[in-house]
């Protein structure tokens, strides 16, 4: 792509690495961040994607991807500092998964039905332009998935229309259709989709699927 935007991915786990590799593949100037840096030396050398600390990755970026575990997402925002996120698009790929096993295949969450983790994050960094995305599918299918039924649907939400337009363009590059569920409160409906996505896996070992919204 021309005039590549700079992307900073926060998170050294599988989701962070998959998304960092995806942005790098599509021509973005990408840095991956771990809490203090230096955790992904071998992976970074192999992929050519530089690693830094969370702070360094945010300072590098026009677009920040929050790909840490949900239980530490608020800590990550506090560590970085809300002022560093001001004006930046923040793609929130987190889910509020509790530190407890699934109940009959249904993941437990630490949020209630009338709140979401994304709302907490937006409140911590009110000048950050948060957009929920990549939270309702396994990491194996986040970048350019191929399904017999065509392009799957990624549900997004956020308060900033221009930020959402940027994320829609990214999702299109990454092989997804997008469905906008509105403002930040839409995360109350999107985040529980991780429970629905994971249930066939925990119950039947079926992990190769994604959601698709059909319209008349």
Structure, explained:
This protein is of the alpha/beta class. It contains nine helices and eight strands. The protein has helices at residues 14-25, 41-47, 54-60, 73-80, 82-85, 117-124, 161-173, 187-190, 193-204; strands spanning 6-10, 29-34, 51-53, 63-66, 89-92, 129-132, 153-156, 177-180. The strands form two sheets. Strands 3-2-1-4-5-6 form a six-stranded parallel β-sheet, with helices on both faces. Strands 7-8 form a two-stranded parallel ribbon. α4 packs parallel to α6. The radius of gyration is 16 Å and the shape is globular.
Kindly list the characteristics that best describe this protein:
216 residues, alpha/beta, 16% strand, 8 strands, 6-stranded parallel β-sheet
In angstroms, what separates the terminal alpha carbons?
Answer: 34 Å
* Biggest sheet, spatial arrangement of strands: 3-2-1-4-5-6
What sequence of helices (H) and strands (E) makes up the elements? Answer: EHEHEHEHHEHEEHEHH
How would you sum up the major sheet?
A: 6 strands, parallel
Percent strand equals 15-25%
Overall pLDDT metric: 96
Q: What is the overall silhouette? A: globular
Overall structural class, as computed from helix and strand content, comes to alpha/beta
Portion in helices: 25-40%
How large is the radius of gyration? 16 Å
The tally of beta strands, per DSSP, is 8
Poorly predicted ranges (pLDDT <50, ≥5 residues)?
Answer: none
Summarize the structure.
This protein has 216 residues and is an alpha/beta fold. The chain has helices spanning 14-25, 41-47, 54-60, 73-80, 82-85, 117-124, 161-173, 187-190, 193-204, and strands at 6-10, 29-34, 51-53, 63-66, 89-92, 129-132, 153-156, 177-180.
């Amino acid at each position: 792509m021309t005039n590549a935007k700079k992307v900073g991915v926060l998170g050294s786990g599988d989701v962070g690495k998959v998304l960092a590799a995806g942005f790098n593949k599509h021509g973005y100037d990408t840095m991956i961040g771990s809490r203090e840096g230096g955790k992904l030396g071998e992976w970074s050398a192999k992929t050519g994607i530089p690693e830094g600390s969370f702070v360094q990755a945010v300072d590098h970026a026009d677009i920040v991807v929050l790909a840490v575990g949900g239980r530490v997402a608020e800590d990550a925002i506090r560590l970085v500092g809300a002022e560093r996120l001001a004006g930046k698009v923040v793609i929130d790929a987190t889910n509020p998964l509790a530190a407890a096993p699934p109940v009959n295949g249904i993941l437990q969450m630490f949020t209630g039905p009338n709140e979401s983790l994304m709302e907490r994050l937006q409140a911590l960094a009110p000048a950050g332009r948060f957009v929920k995305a990549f939270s309702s599918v396994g990491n194996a299918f986040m970048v350019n998935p191929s399904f017999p039924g065509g392009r799957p649907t990624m549900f997004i939400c956020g308060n900033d229309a221009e930020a959402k337009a940027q994320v829609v363009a990214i999702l299109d590059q990454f092989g997804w259709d997008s469905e906008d569920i509105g403002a930040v409160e839409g995360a109350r409906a999107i985040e529980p989709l991780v429970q629905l996505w994971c249930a066939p896996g925990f119950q039947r070992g079926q992990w190769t699927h994604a959601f698709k919204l059909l319209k008349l």
